[in-house]
């Protein structure tokens, strides 16, 4: 009789603490790691990991699967990338609490802010809840192949309490603030991991209205934070523009001072305010020196907009000539764009762009447009841009873009690094990643379905930064794994996972690291109501184990549904000893 459920043999074990790898076997029984080293007992399943690496399962702290989690057990594309725990409810948007008459508005807010097709959400969500606790029950009752954690979103709470005054951006009264605090604490008591909010003009609903939390005042934010402090539960997560950087940060810092709860803040370099991120990081560092637990959530590459005939945008969407074929079947669009007369008319046209809108950048900043290719390069050199190629060939950049778009019979994608690429490399991102007060995040898994596919961030972290980078230094693989596992788990209070140690939860990846390959995103139409989304697959994730069972092989589901809803902070299992973390 086998002594263990699974034994992983002979891999290079990166234990998640940041320690150097050691060759070891890993034995798993009853959903827990039970032995690491030379395992003499056999396993009901034996996994040969020779020549491969073994890591804890990856913890993605920033996803938007709030609707998808109720109908999709597998949460692709994140699970193509070694993710075994996904945290949603970020950026202040989500679907609970919700009164019946607010459902359509919440769908429109999520569609506008996170580019998730409203028709898919309307078809897929069953709305068998009103309160956040009922929403958690609905998620818990859904089949899951990985673990998920939920945060209560400010936008839904504000609208639930204030009604139409919330999207009108009116200030909350003291009584409304107290009620919001009560609802947040009620959710935390039911098992929500934390509270999230948004203070950015980038977040708009499907009709162009601002997110209802944009102008929430200090009294409201501090009142909610104070309630969380009294409950002694939950984390804080937010995004803000920081245009008045120090004053905005001071207000947010006040939330941590009043609550004592940890906070994480989105950090990205924005071309419109290219140095603000540095000032925010300086403020975060100063807060930590004062003993306040604040981290920046940072991405491992540029926030990349994908342009093309199959995505939601391309450089010609503001051209009247292109609009005559927009929405036609792909084959018809390709045929028209290859017609010399149609092509000449299109390229000669000068469209009018809405002043100050991001779409003008996406259509005309040719120095930041690149061909993506089948194996994407997320740190392209400026001399590979459409502008540079046009200068070398004597073409207009739009002609270069059109040629690129027509490759692969119109399925090719263009890459526009919208955030974090002001200097033409990932030098700024390197500073963000290696800052002592940051954490890896912002994959937005489940969101931006037709224009961005950053759920592959975990694979970029370990391949680009740990193996392949040529335009700057690489980072130690053990440190990168630590950030994706123990450090991210601790960020949201999940101290029962993220480390390969006896007694810890058996969420484990076996990865053929030398051959790990990331492919270009592609469009599929598999959301409810035939909604489209981008997915991005890999080769090399040999096995992803969730709670002691192989849930995914090479990213594809095995049918094992060992995932669960994580309710609240999780303590380290009793008696487990873990070496000090690398940072």
From TrEMBL:
Hydrolase: is it a keyword of this entry? yes
Q: Amidohydrolase domain: from which residue to which, for each copy?
A: 45-550
Entries under CDD domains matching the protein: D-aminoacylase (cd01297)
The organism sits in which domain of life? Bacteria
The alphabetized UniProt keywords are: Hydrolase
Give any GO molecular function from the UniProt entry.
hydrolase activity, acting on carbon-nitrogen (but not peptide) bonds, in cyclic amides
Record's GO cellular component, any one?
Answer: cytosol
UniProt name for this protein? Amidohydrolase 3
């Amino acid at each position: 009789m086998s002594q263990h459920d699974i034994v992983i043999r002979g891999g290079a074990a990166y234990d998640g603490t940041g320690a150097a790898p050691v060759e070891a076997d890993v034995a798993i029984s009853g959903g827990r790691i039970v032995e690491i080293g030379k395992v003499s007992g056999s396993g009901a399943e034996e996994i040969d990991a020779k020549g491969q690496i073994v890591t804890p399962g990856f913890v993605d702290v920033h996803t938007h699967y709030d609707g998808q989690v109720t109908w999709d057990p597998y949460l692709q594309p994140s699970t193509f990338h070694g993710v075994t725990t996904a945290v949603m409810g970020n950026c202040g948007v989500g679907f609970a609490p919700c009164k019946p008459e607010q459902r359509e508005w919440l769908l429109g807010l999520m569609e506008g802010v996170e580019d998730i097709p409203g028709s898919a959400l309307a078809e897929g969500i069953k709305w068998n809840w009103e309160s956040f606790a009922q929403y958690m029950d609905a998620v818990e009752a859904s089949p899951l192949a990985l673990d998920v954690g939920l945060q209560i979103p400010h936008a839904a709470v504000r609208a639930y309490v204030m009604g139409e005054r919330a999207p009108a951006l009116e200030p909350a009264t003291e009584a409304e603030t107290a009620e919001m605090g009560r609802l947040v604490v009620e959710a935390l008591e039911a098992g929500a991991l934390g509270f999230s909010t948004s203070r950015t003009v980038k977040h708009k609903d499907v009709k162009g209205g601002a997110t209802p939390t944009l102008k929430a005042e200090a009294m409201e934010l501090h009142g909610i934070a104070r309630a969380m402090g009294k409950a002694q539960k939950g984390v804080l997560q937010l995004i803000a523009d920081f245009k008045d950087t120090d004053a905005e940060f001071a207000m947010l810092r006040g939330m941590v001072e009043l609550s004592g709860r940890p906070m994480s803040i989105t950090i990205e370099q924005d071309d419109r305010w290219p140095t603000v991120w540095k000032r925010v990081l300086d403020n975060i560092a100063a807060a930590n020196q004062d003993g306040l637990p604040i981290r920046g959530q940072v991405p491992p590459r540029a926030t990349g907009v994908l342009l093309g005939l199959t995505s939601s945008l391309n450089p010609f969407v503001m051209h009247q000539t292109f609009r005559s074929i927009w929405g036609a079947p792909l084959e018809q669009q390709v045929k028209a764009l290859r017609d010399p007369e149609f092509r000449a008319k299109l390229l000669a046209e000068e469209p009018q762009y809405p002043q100050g809108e991001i779409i003008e950048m996406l259509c005309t900043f040719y120095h930041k447009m690149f061909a993506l290719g089948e194996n994407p390069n997320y740190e392209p050199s400026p001399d590979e841009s459409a502008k540079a190629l046009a200068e070398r060939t004597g073409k207009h950049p739009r002609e270069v873009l059109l040629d690129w778009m027509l490759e692969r019979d119109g399925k090719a994608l263009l890459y526009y690094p919208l955030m974090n690429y002001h200097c033409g490399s990932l030098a700024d991102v390197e500073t963000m990643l290696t800052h002592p007060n940051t954490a890896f995040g912002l994959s937005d898994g489940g969101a931006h379905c037709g224009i961005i596919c950053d759920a592959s961030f975990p694979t970029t972290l370990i391949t680009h930064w740990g193996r392949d980078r040529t335009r700057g230094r690489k980072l130690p693989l053990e440190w990168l794994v630590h950030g994706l596992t123990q450090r991210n788990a601790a960020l949201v209070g999940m101290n029962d996972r993220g480390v390969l140690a006896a007694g810890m939860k058996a969420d484990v990846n076996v990865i053929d690291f030398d051959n790990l390959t990331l492919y270009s995103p592609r469009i599929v139409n598999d959301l409810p109501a035939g909604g489209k989304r981008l997915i991005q697959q890999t080769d090399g994730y040999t096995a992803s184990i969730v709670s002691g069972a192989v849930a995914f092989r090479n990213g594809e589901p095995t049918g094992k549904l060992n995932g669960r809803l994580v309710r609240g902070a999780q303590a380290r299992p009793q008696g487990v000893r873990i070496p000090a973390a690398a940072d």
